[in-house]
Each structure stands twice: as C-alpha cells, then as structure tokens.
Amino acid sequence: MDGTLHSRPSACPACSAAPSAEQLASAAVPKDARLFLSLPTIHCAACIAAVERALNATPGVHEARVNLTLKRVAVEGNPEVNAEDLIAVLASIGYEAHELDPGVIAATATDKAGRDILMRIAVSGFAMANVMILSVAVWSGASDATRDMFHWISAMIALPAIGFAAQPFFRSALSVLKHGRLNMDVPISLAILLAAGMSLYETAQSGRHAYFDAALSLTFFLLAGRYLDHRTRAIARSAAEELAALEVPRALRRRADGTEETVPIAGIAVGDTVLVKPGARVPVDGIVAEGQSEIDRSLLTGETLPAFAGPGMALSAGEVNLTGPLAVTVTAAGEDSSLHRMADLVAVAESARNRYTSLADRAARVYAPGVHLLALGAFVAWLWISGGDVRLALNIAVAVLIITCPCALGLAVPAVTTAASGRLFKRGMLIKDGTALERLAEVDTVVFDKTGTLTLGTPELTNLGEHPRRTLEIATALAGASAHPLARALAGATEAVGIRPATVSDLREVPGHGVEARLGGETVRFGRAAWVGAETGQDTAAWLRVGQALPVAFTFTDRLRPGAEAALAQLKAQGLAVRLISGDARGPVAELAARLGIEDWTAEALPEDKAAAVQALGEGGARVLMVGDGLNDTAALAAAHVSISPASALDAARVASDIVLLGSDIAPMGEVVDTARRATRRIRENFAISAGYNLVAVPIALVGLATPLAAALAMSASSITVSLNALRLR
Predict the structure, then answer these.
(1) Residue 647, SS3?
(2) CATH label, 457-559, candidates 3.40.50.1000, 3.40.50.200, 3.30.930.10, 3.40.1110.10
(3) Tens digits of per-residue pLDDT, 335-363?
(4) Third-level CATH fold of 248-337
(5) Among the options 449, 539, 584, 629, which is catalytic?
(6) How far apart are CA 628 and CA 609, in angstroms?
(7) Taking Cα atoms as reference points, which of 33, 526, 548 lies closest to residue 266?
(8) DSSP-H helix ranges across 179-258
(9) pTM of the model
(10) Known catalytic residue at 257
C-alpha cells in the first residue's frame, strides 16, 4: 500500500540478470536427505528391529538407525524421501512418530554437555566428602594398620572418581599436547595426576600422608568453574544453520504440458517455472512470470511493509508471498540462491569473530609453561639438596603444582561473567556468549538497525485529525477487510476514537493493490498510490479515493521502541559513536535519525551492504557493537565485534547475536557497555588476586613448608576469594 515500496530496486541485483544458455542447461545435483523422527512409544529391542525393518524396506531409504535411549530414528535416503511418508509407514505397523527439527537435536546436545559436567561435579563432590571424613580419622591420630586401611579405602573411592570426573581436563590436555601446545588444562591435569599418584605411592609404602582429598578438591572446584563457563556459552545453533533452515526443501514446478509436480530444490534448474501459493515462502530466486501479490521482503530489506509483486519483478529465496498466487521463472536455486549466499556470508563472519581470544586464554599462554618450569625447577633443586630423596622432591613439586594450579584463574572469568550476566538479566539483557562481556567492554562504536530495533516495526497513523469523520468512516470500512499492516493500523486508530465503519457493498481485496468497494453507486478504493491514481511521495502512506474525487493520503510512521531516546543518550554520554544503517527508504530513515539526533545514517542498505559497513569499521580499527533484529542484519551481527538483538528478532538474528534484549524497552542497552567495562575490571582484579596469592604461597611451597594438602586448602581459599570478588558486580 505504501506508494514508495513498489518502485524499490531489487533486493538482489543478481536475481534480475538474464540467465545464460549455460545456466538454463545446468541443473543441481540431488543430495541425500537426512531426517530425524521421534519415536515416543518404542521400548525394547523388538521395537528397534520392527522400526528399522519397516523403514529400510521403504523405497528411497538407504539406512535407518534407531537410538532407544533418545527414542529417535535417523533416516538417510534419496532427496524425495519425506517425513510424512515415513511417519505413515511407521503408523501402519503401530508406532507413533513425529519429525524432529535438527535444531532441537543440536540444542539437546548442548543440554547433554551441561548435564554431563553436573554429573561429574556430583561424583567428585560425593567422593571428596567421603575421603575427607576418612582423613579426619587419620588426622586424629590413627596409625599403622588402621591408617593404612583408611588410606586404601580412600584410594578405592578417589581413583575411580578422579578417573571419571577429571576426564574433561585430561582430554583437553591430551588434545593440545598432541599438537605441541599448552593450555590451562595441562597443569591442571598434571597436578591432579601427581597428587593422586603420590598418594597411591605413599599408601603402598605405608606412608603417613596421602592427598586423595587434595586431588578430589582440585577436580571438584575446577569442574565448578567449567560448569559456570558452560552456562555462559549456551548457544544452541549457529546463525548460518538458522539461515539454512529457512531454505524451502521442495518446490511446486510446472511441467511443459501445464501439469504440476512437487520436486526437491536440488532438482530445480535455471529456467524452470515454480508456483508459489499465498502464505508460502519463495523457494528460489526468480522473476515473476504470472500473477500479482504482495511480498514480505523483511528477510532482505528489514522493511516490514509488504511490497507489490507483479510480472517482471525480481524475487529472492526466503521472501514470503502474502496474498495472490505467483508463477516464478527460476534464475537461481539451492546453493546459488541469495539466501544460501547470505548463509555463507554469515558463516564466514562467525568464524572470523570466533578467533577472538579471551583474557583467560591469553593468560594461559604465559601461565601454563611458567607453572611447569617452576615445579620442575623445585623437583630438581630439592633432589640435589636432599641428596637424591625422590619422595621429598616429588612431594614439594606436587605441592608447587597444586598451589599454583590455575583454579582461581579458571574461575576468574566465569565467576565474573555469571555475576554480570545475572545483573544484566534482571534488567532484561540475556548474555549468550562467554567472551561477550570482554568484547563489549572494548566497544567504541554502536551501529543500529532501524525497523524492529529502534522502532517496533508497527506503523502508527500520524494524520488522523486531518480528515473529516465521513472520510474516516469510509476508510475504516475498507481497511477492516485487509490484513495489510497499514490497514490494520488505520482500523485500530479509528476504532480507538470511536469511528464506526460506513456501510459499503461488493467489498473485495485486490492482491498487491488494496481494497475496493461500492458506496452509493460510486467505486471507492483504499490502497497503493498508483492504484488509486495518486502521486507517489516520500512518506509511508495509504490512499483513499471516493468516486472521481481527489485521493486523500493517510500517512504513517514507525512507532519508536520504548527507551530508545534514553538508551542513545546514555551511549553517547559514555563517549560511544552511534550510527544508523537501515534497509528502509531514505525518508523514514532520515526522519528517525533527526528525531534521535543520529548524524551518521545510511538508508536502503542491502544485507551485504550492512555487513560490509561493519567489516570496514572493524578494519579501520573500530570495535563495533551491532544492534539489529532482521534476517538482513544477520551477517552484520555476526561480523561485528559484539552484537545485540531484541527477543522479537528472527531466530537467525537472535542466534547470530551475543546478547538478547528480552523486553520491548531498549533503555537497558544504555548501561550494558558500562556493566561490561566494570566486569572486565573485576576479571583483571581476579587475575591480580590470583597472582598475589601465588607470590605469597609459591615461596612457601618452594621451601618445603607446604604439604600437598595444605596447598589444596590454600588453592581453595584463593578460589573462594575470586568468587566473592566477582559477586560485587551484583
């Protein structure tokens, strides 16, 4: 209905290019389908055999494998195999089945990882408590056979518990050692193994001291830090996968004889004609050959108002056909479509951002080799001083390793991140990525999208008082028959002031144009400027024409998101540069920029333009915070140093972002950078606490005044101190 929309350039210039003879002759190579079905009623081996036998006998199925624990079956087959047919096959043998979204499977894997860490924490904590109870008896004076018995019981509890609970550290350490590198898990693993090994040796030699409780304490506290870290990194899927999920797997193709067939997208070739029904997502890039409709182009432009689509108009994969059936001549499909290219763009941007190194990782590069050299030096020195007493030298080396074990360093970041995340969550900001706060503290430039971010993406009537009551009654009667956003906004505004619709007849909606009716022998129209005979302007508007009278305009503006002005004022007060980059037309963007005092703004930006602008700022030395909500913002969100999206954003935008704004009020954004900067200061303070603790404790261990058990207690004290310092953020 907006007169400015029908003349917008194609969202993807490549889509409007004429296909070459080579393209017309080429067709994509079909790929195998992989489907997952939930099987809630299976319960035994006989069920597994029956399900796999039935599915493997289905034409096109290559392999079906059932997982009884997850009550799920994975099916691989030809592209034409679909979930509906497989569900029908299973229903015929008496089993209920439902298709599983691959994203649910990925989210389940993430949840499983969290449960796995919690289980290891529980095992190590239970074992630690029991071994400490046994240690009390030893400390109380038990000796000889009684002491040895308690030590052996402790060994039988501790060694299996450590073997199970400490696996994450062992696997990580082995992985980096295979590649000739070091990380925090190497000294951690070494300290745990040496403490357990020395304790076992002391027990076998009927020694007075064993440190199984120290090894278990190390494992327990470090797993607690690992779980905190996991909680802050709970991202279910990548944005590239979300984009790929929007690709339509099948299309309705028109044969040469005029009949229709449903085929996989892999079987669509350039030059084919596909049919797109109202309400369906466009499966390919192409040119409209027949039909008229309105298209939701928010996928690529971010603009929420539907655009007119008629013969000769270019469409892109992923857009939604709203009102009328369309026949589309294919110019690109599958991996060549604009949607797939956007997914590739996002994947590249995500991989670039994931190269960010956290403060803890940077500290590990220096800390880990230093710890090993110090412990080795202590062992060699005491071996020489003691005249070859291996037991004494090894005890001191173990004490040094435990007392310098980076437990506090391991908790320094997760503890602060968890505290800061809790603080921001109370204010409506959900932190999704473990390094988001560190990156956010470095931000100096904020780039905003317009529609759905600074505004709510819902039109608001601006000139209600300029029209006579009779005009409003007629417009209300016609607007009530349309689901167009402008029509709904007008109907809502007139209803709020008590305007009742006029009585009209022959009311009908014309796809892509507007609504038409008869009023007292005259034709009345409400819709796009060109359709009612009005001149297109810069404003977002819908037009009403009664008979031969001059058309009248109803103008609209996008409703400002609550708190937008306050958030921008706070960000500017913190010295941050603010930019606006939008896919909307120049008029609305310029109006909003003036209203919010944003001097640097860009309109009519395509997805690749937004991503390129963010990348250019980054290459110029800026640390960019990108705030957006649309699929057209996804690549820019992934390319930014850190990103935020509202909870109302599309799934792909939310996944690509590091932080989600949970409410409709954007005011909390004003303090998110300040909170991040304070959180980073706390992290640095925790590093200082850890370093200070080592400066005091390490010399004590080096001169042989600290047993491995005392070292474990000191290490625990430093961890608690770090955690308490982190809680100051709350």
Answers:
(1) coil
(2) 3.40.1110.10
(3) 777 666 656 545 544 444 444 445 555 66
(4) 2.70.150
(5) 449
(6) 14
(7) 33
(8) 185-204, 212-232, 239-245
(9) 0.51
(10) no
